[in-house]
Write a structure and sequence with these properties.
The chain has 224 residues and is an alpha/beta fold. The protein has a single domain, classed as LigB-like (Protocatechuate 4,5-dioxygenase, Chain B). The protein is built from 8 helices and 10 strands. Strands 1, 2, 3, 4, 5, 6 and 7 form a 7-stranded mixed sheet that branches. Strands 8-10-9 form a 3-stranded antiparallel sheet. It is globular, with a radius of gyration of 16 Å.
Amino acid sequence: MYSGPVAAHAYYRLATDGKPDVVVLLGPNHTGYGSALAVMNEGFWRTPLGDLEIDGESANQIVRESRIVDVDDSAHRFEHSIEVQLPFLQYLYGSEFKIVPICFLMQDLTSAREVGQAVAKVLAGKNSLVIASSDMTHYEPHEMAEKKDKVALEAIEEMDEAKFYSTVEAHNMSICGYGPITALIVAAKILGAKEAKLLCHKTSGDVTGDYSSVVGYAAVCFTK
């Protein structure tokens, strides 16, 4: 009820852009289970809208290219950050595309860059899409959350992963998926993205009317 209407802005844009063959989904590891950087390379993910097959070939290529991503199902078993994106994708595309889920427990700048570089190398020439799933500021007053999110989103729109990362650190931000966002910025630039545009930014206070302690949400589109 909070993140969905914001995410829908991104999926509306995707709906006008054709159907991908493979979608790489990057998300934070909230549970602490499994490897620090974990991918799945076989099987299916099931939602009420059907089964989505994992692209084992692309997943294994990312493991080889990055050398820091492990194959580890356990990191994904109880994690929600990636799976919550799947119904949006299935609503747009059915279940004909394949997915590569990568879960980030380790979110340092160097590792995130390496994952982004590996993803870009593997997806070069493929009909593909990269999505980073993350909330913005957590459990702060609405005005403070808006202020913090604004400077983080400005760095994202500049497609400057170092500035984004240093902004998160300098302002002590509670963005849960800063590693996935960093990796996405890196991959997008290598794959030829020329612009990152903020489509929507809201907080949970905009839904509940309680602005005393909110979580921020944003949708950003990277385009060539």
